[in-house]
Amino acid sequence: MNFVLSSIEDDIATVTLQRGKVNALNEPMVEEIDDLFRTLETDTAVKSIIFTGAGKFFSFGFDVPEFLHYPKEDFVYYLEKFTNLCTYLFQFPKPVVAALNGHTIAGGCMLAIACDVRIMASGKGKISLNEITFGAPVFAGSVEMLRFCVGSRNAQAILYSGAMYSAEDALQLGLVDRVSSENALTDDARKVAEEFAGKDSAAFRSIKKLLRKPVAEEMVRHEKDCILEFVDIWYSETTREKLERIKIH
């Protein structure tokens, strides 16, 4: 399918999303991301990972038009795969640097906040957990990871508003850790990845586990019920009307 590219230079892997113009997430793409990261986890030559997108988007989030045709049971199964991926990435034992090359929206934002560091290119690109604007709720994982990144007060502001933040505004909120230029993003992300790669791998893995395992346990504890509620709202008449207006291709 090749919706996700991987390259390795020295001890740093680069994972690049490439599906259409907006890197919208569908079931095969989520499976590819999961498979690739599991391969990189066991590759002893890889010390850190850069996670980025092709084109003007890191990721638009879910491929809404495609999922509108999913039966409820199939959509529940997909959401379980996606939320499991986010939980896995959040606890990934190696450093992951998100190089946000453009728009990072909804499900795309979830993938980004699962990473250790987010560097976003300045410019037209926006980052958002904007589900509330099209009548959708969020997942337990969204809330817990966001709270971990930005604190409870800023998490509430981000989720209640559904606002689209520039890189600079996101930096002020703690939603990203650094702002780069479009031209310098790749080099800046690599410098951070190299810094991580130079650290003791066992020590990093242990510290990350101590920091993140309690958060991940909260994510898992509540996710099943959140998915069922998400699906009920997603298939409601009012939300479906809003979703049907979304065009991504």
Question: What descriptive keywords fit this protein?
Answer:
249 residues; alpha/beta; 2-enoyl-CoA Hydratase, Chain A, domain 1; 6-stranded mixed sheet; 3-stranded parallel sheet; 10 helices; globular
Work out the count of structural domains: 1
Low confidence ranges: none
What structural class results from the helix and strand content? alpha/beta
User: What fold name stands as the CATH topology?
Assistant: 2-enoyl-CoA Hydratase, Chain A, domain 1
Largest sheet: 6 strands, mixed
Tell me the name of the CATH homologous superfamily. 2-enoyl-CoA Hydratase, Chain A, domain 1
CATH architecture: Alpha-Beta Complex
Distance between the termini: 18 Å
Count of individual helical segments: 10
Layout: helices, strands, pairs:
Elements: E1 4-9, E2 12-17, H1 27-42, E3 48-53, E4 57-59, H2 64-67, H3 72-90, E5 96-100, E6 103-105, H4 107-113, E7 117-121, E8 127-128, H5 140-150, H6 152-161, H7 167-173, E9 178-180, H8 185-197, H9 201-234, H10 237-243
Parallel strand pairs: 2-3, 3-5, 4-6, 5-7, 6-8, 7-9
Antiparallel strand pairs: 1-2
Helix pairs in contact: 1-3, 3-9, 5-6, 5-9
